[in-house]
TrEMBL record:
Principal localisation: nucleus
Protein name per its UniProtKB record: F-box only protein 25
Single Gene Ontology BP annotation: protein ubiquitination
Keyword Nucleus tagged: yes
GO CC, one annotated term: nucleus
Coiled-coil positions: none
Subcellular location(s) per record: Nucleus
Keywords: Nucleus, Ubl conjugation pathway
Function in brief: Substrate-recognition component of the SCF (SKP1-CUL1-F-box protein)-type E3 ubiquitin ligase complex. May play a role in accumulation of expanded polyglutamine (polyQ) protein huntingtin (HTT).
Entry-linked SUPFAM superfamilies: F-box domain
CDD domains in UniProt: F-box_FBXO25
Species annotation: Scleropages formosus (Asian bonytongue)
Gene name of the record: FBXO25
Known pathway: Protein modification; protein ubiquitination
Length: 324
């Protein structure tokens, strides 16, 4: 309001009003820049100095509340983990399990972090063509889950605006199209190739694989590898690695010659039983401290013999830790 005795139409008052308005605009602009900066900084990953988290399942006198799946996802630096080839498949499998059953349990911040990590994974695969089949399976499960959630909106709890979820689904469908059109360039090199290796070395490489599709894909590269990839003994070893003998008996498949068709057995058995999982590196759980952490990052353990307290955590075990 004008001061007593001051005409609000006077030039001095107009100048004050203008300065006041400009000041408000500058303040709003500053707040917006601060918010945008925060969003840009958090787009890649929520930063925490410690790469471990205490798994709290109930309130105690010392600690109140409990740890959620979303908090753990934010704290354990999965954004950096996907850059480590030892952890890549582990993180992808974890994201796939979350997509199937735990997506709605994530907080808004954790959901944002989840999709940011997923975006980095897709970009990495498009750039270096590493394991696109695994990412295709993840996106297929995620798109199916989002279709159900969006279709049944109102019947289930969705954190955030429905338009955000529709936009996420459109992004996933776009990623799927890019991966389906992905062309892996032929490597041109004057050095030693896989075909130049002795037969027994090529065979040994095939025996190192723990996934049937990897064997089939490698077998398609050369006639020699195709011949080696059809070896019955190779598929028998693979079945014995993943499944128990009792499971063989329940789904025994014989060829026309009366021999066990181990290749067909493998793909049949995996429809009924989970395969044994193998990862180069996994999260660890300290039973003494109830702390979840990456082994190379460590955690402040108070046990006399810390290594004896560490347990590898599979992706499913990670999910189970946060089921209350």
């Amino acid at each position: 309001m004008p001061f007593l005795g001051q005409d609000w139409r006077s030039p001095g008052w107009n100048h004050k009003i203008k300065n006041l308005f400009v000041g408000d605009v500058c303040e709003v602009a500053a707040k917006k820049r601060k918010k945008d900066l925060l969003n840009n900084n958090t787009k890649s990953q929520f930063f925490f100095k410690e790469k471990w988290i205490y798994v709290q399942k109930e309130s105690t006198r010392e600690r109140h509340g409990y740890c959620t799946l979303g908090e753990a996802f934010n704290r354990l630096d999965f954004s950096s983990a996907i850059q480590d080839i030892r952890r890549f498949n582990y993180v992808v499998k974890l994201l796939q399990l979350i997509a199937k059953s735990q997506l709605t349990s994530l907080s808004g911040a954790a959901q944002k972090n989840y999709f940011n990590v997923l975006e980095k994974i897709v970009r990495k695969v498009l750039e270096d063509q590493y394991n696109p089949r695994l990412i295709k399976e993840l996106l297929e499960d995620l798109s199916s889950t989002l279709c159900i959630l969006i279709r049944e909106v109102g019947k289930c709890v969705l954190v955030g605006n429905i338009n955000i979820w529709v936009c996420r689904l459109e992004t996933i469908l776009n990623w799927q199209e890019q991966l389906n059109n992905l062309q892996i360039p032929k490597q041109i090199t004057g050095g030693v190739t896989l075909s130049d290796l002795p037969l027994h070395m090529q065979n040994n490489i095939l025996y190192k694989f723990s996934d049937g599709w990897d064997i089939i894909n490698l077998g398609q590269t050369t006639p020699t590898l195709h011949m080696l990839s059809e070896d019955r003994q190779l598929w028998k070893k693979l079945c014995q690695f993943h499944f128990a003998e009792k499971q063989f008996c329940r789904h025994l498949i014989l060829s026309e010659k009366g021999h066990v068709d181990w290749k067909l057995m493998y793909f049949t058995l995996q429809k009924y039983y989970p395969k044994k999982e193998q990862y180069g590196d996994t999260l660890q759980f300290c039973r003494h401290c109830s702390i979840l952490f990456w082994k190379d990052s460590g955690h402040p353990c108070t046990a006399n013999d810390p290594d004896s307290c560490f347990t590898p955590v599979s992706p499913q075990h990670f999910i189970d830790l946060f089921k209350f």
